[in-house]
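Re: the pair you flagged

First of the two:
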Amino acid sequence: MNSALKNQLRQSLRARRRQILPDQQHLAAQQLMRRVIKLSAYRRASHIAAYTASDGEISPEYLLRHAALQKKRCYLPRIHLGGAGQKRMSFQRYHPRQTLRQNRYGIGEPAGLRYCAIAPAQLDIVLLPLAGFDKNGGRLGMGGGFYDRCFAFKKRSAQQKPLLIGIAHHCQEVSALPVDNWDIGLDMIITDRAVIIPKRGRGKA
């Protein structure tokens, strides 16, 4: 039941963000950056992971440029597909001037060597893409489960790092999302209009 509802929501919300015009996308990305850099968690952070925007997602491009200028280490996800349907994600070192290669989903990712990767638990902040969110910290992803598997350790222990921040356009908010027991909740949500700290979240602005 949750799966069908999630798929329906996902298609609707993806269509909604695709309707955002390019000029509005650029403005939203700049507004997003301004909100993130005001966070004390951002100022303290040394290792920050984000993503390459596609399909109408809000872009962390300006933020990554700012982080690089502040001498912070930036990372992007890299997808690994193994035998028997195995799927996992690692985080590879990235610099805004670096050339990316397209993965099988058409998303740019670093082509770096293994020694450029960082363990997920060593990241300070992860900026997660999403299709939809609610104010309880629920995140609706694209359905691949990569982030849920990568950060499942946060559900199993009192591990505080990394701070999981979902970033999105404000129009991607819904009143409540269907939740499965494997879903990883967000510590914070930041949109082009607001910083939202869920009641269950541990994030500190």
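Second of the two:
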Amino acid sequence: MAENQSKAATRANSPAQAPVLRPGRAADPVPAPVEAGSQPSAPAAGADAAKGAEMLPVDQAPDTATGSEEASGNDQHRDAGSSKPERILAESRQRKLRLMLRQCDRVLLMDFELLAMNGWPDNFTMAEARRGRDLWLFSALIAAAIFLSGLTGFVPAWIAGGGFGAFVIILLLGIPAVRRIYTTKPSYLDLLMTRQRMLREARQHVAHLEGSDGLIWQCARMSDFNPALKNTRFGHLLRLSENRVLARQLTRREHVRLYLIYLLEAEKAYSRVQKAFFEGNQEAIDQGWEEVAAEPESRT
């Protein structure tokens, strides 16, 4: 009886027997025993660290919030350091574009009609007017010769009188007020005066555009936005503009037309520079670079 009770007590104190696996089912992997002197595995170390962190008091818990703030501050500092060269380059480019716009803004004051000189008398009209002038002079000389021959008695007096009357009429036809009565064609003198007037007005306009500092030689720096400004045929005009003597050297219509062509190309480049400046200004505003996006100073 006592033996049965001791066996029952021993069975009650012994641990419960592990369940038997069913036939055909794979057994669960058994963790390998850790040998003495070997380091624990990473998951176990992580679990121990987590348990230790949970057991720490509140005031000794790791300050994870401070670490994240420091990491974010380092990231922001790194971003600011990387964007600083870009901001400097953008500021330099905007300053360069602003200077171009400031120095070449007089291109917009160009008077195309005045510099094109569309009413310029062509060579055919000048040649025709020159033939009319030569005919008028020849007729006046013939009439004067007849009149003088009558004074010497070489021709009869009535022929000399007729020659004198013809000479007076021819002279009257040379007067512009009388000449406009029977013809609307300008005389050779009128065409010459028209050419001189148009050239004088064009030179005055060029002098106004060039000013005291010169214009087109400063616009040459916009050649990156319009390669046509690099053409060698404009080289002489650029040198004259840099020396501030361009307006005085424009003595022919071809010179003025060449100057007009350069201004048209410079106007194209100016519009592209203006577009690039506004785009850079908007980009600086988007990036928050207030110094780069500053407006140009007002001109006095």
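The chain has twelve helices and no strands.

-B.
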